[in-house]
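Writing this down once: the sequence line spells out the residues, with the fold written below as integer tokens. This is how one looks:
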Amino acid sequence: MPDAVSEAPTRRPMRSRFGLRALSLVIIAVFAAVAASLYVGASRLGHDQEHRLLVDRTREIGSLLQSAIGSGLQQSLISLASAAQQSPSTFARVAHGGIAATGTATVALVRHTPSGWTVDTAVGTELKAGRLLSGAQSAIVNAAGAQMKSDILTIAPHDSRLVLTLGSPSAPAGTVIYESFAVDPTRPTPVTQSQPFHELNVALYVGTQPRAANLLLTTSKHVPLRGDTATAVVPSGASNWLVVASARHDLAGAVASHVPILLLAVALVIGLAMTVVVEAMGRRRDYAVALVAERTAALETSLHELERTQLALVDNERLAALGQMAATVGHELRNPLSVLTNSMYLIRHAVSSATNERLERQINTADREIAAATLIVSDLLEFARPRVANPISVDVAELISEAVSVAPPPASIEIRQDYDDGQVTADRDQLRQVILNLLTNAYDAMPTGGQIELRTHRNADTVEIEITDTGVGMDAETQARLFEPFFSRKTKGTGLGLAVSKRIIDNHDGTFNVASHEGEGTTITLRLPAAPVRAGARQ
């Protein structure tokens, strides 16, 4: 009977992994491309419009600042210079009035002397009369000219000054008007909805570069400003200031900002609608074909299930018959084997003092064959009617040594033993049968001799039994069918040894692992749960 029923090919429409037809995918792809193009185009137009509005608003801020600087700061310096032309007392009176009105930190008249720039008259807390300027203050004053100049002077962290200077000819010859304002660029200037340009984030720098050291004031905590920004240069006397601005929200309005999304959504909705129509029409056409294919598949599935059920029944009947035969044969052979065992025991003791080596070898051969036959009978009986395990605490090393004495190796095979102290909870007879099976298999795998290593190792909660031979090993096909009942590559044997051994280990909640390479030998590792250690027991 063939393994599978051949299926007639059924023509099906080409579909993607999402269950859509090729035509539907093309429609979706086309409308997706159109939607993406509309979105990108509208977004670019909206961005350009936003940027133009931002540039215009930034220029407006620059114009307002230029007007405020001219009418405020520059006019203040000119008034101070006119007062200085009259007398120091007039200068001091005007300076006092300016500080009270504008909150200026310091106003001073600085005179050039042979020692350098010296404060002649000062009003405020930063400078005192008679003080010789040095460092940045001296450099700022030394650069003063006929037009107002400005710079940022850093006194300490979070303590900066906006310094304005005006020299001759506006001020008396050899003098410079010095005016400073306390600023803190790290503290944003609050902006309310009622103030102009409240929709912008603004940063004002002294100079034309947006450096942190040149920052005069800002309306945002996040400086430098990120994203889309616009700049405007504001003339301030002989210096230039830089305005950097970014939008807090859409300057063109919410409707303009949503146009790209609306276009994208409309194009996608149209594409999806057309896809739904195409899919509906196509699936109606396929319904009848799919129904016939489904009924045909159901019939073929039923035939496959019937075939598997018949094969399973045949296998079960065959195994039941083999099990019944194995039980009968095992019972019939057990008694004669017991008689032979006793007879060989008596013969060995009767000739123990003899010096006939040939007779001794024959007796040893008979003992091995009787032990092998006994093991086969045990396998047959265990396969036919598995015994209920009687678990007790078993010394693994002692049990392996006993198995080696019961089934000693041929003269050409050397056994090496390395045991840890280990106790397992198991049925002693069943575990002994497993070890005997593995030993005899290892002997058979080394017809020309070799070496067997027997090792045990106790872990925290398991005991490992490892049996390694240097025999012929196994190929991949043999390993795949290793635990199949009645399968054997040996000329003698029932093919039940490993199947029974695997079942015994599984019933003891253990594991049975085989590692083999053809021509290199085999290693079998048994892992069994360790017996609980009694209080005071030797570890």
Remarks:
- The first helix runs from residue 22 to 86.
- The longest strand covers residues 116-124.
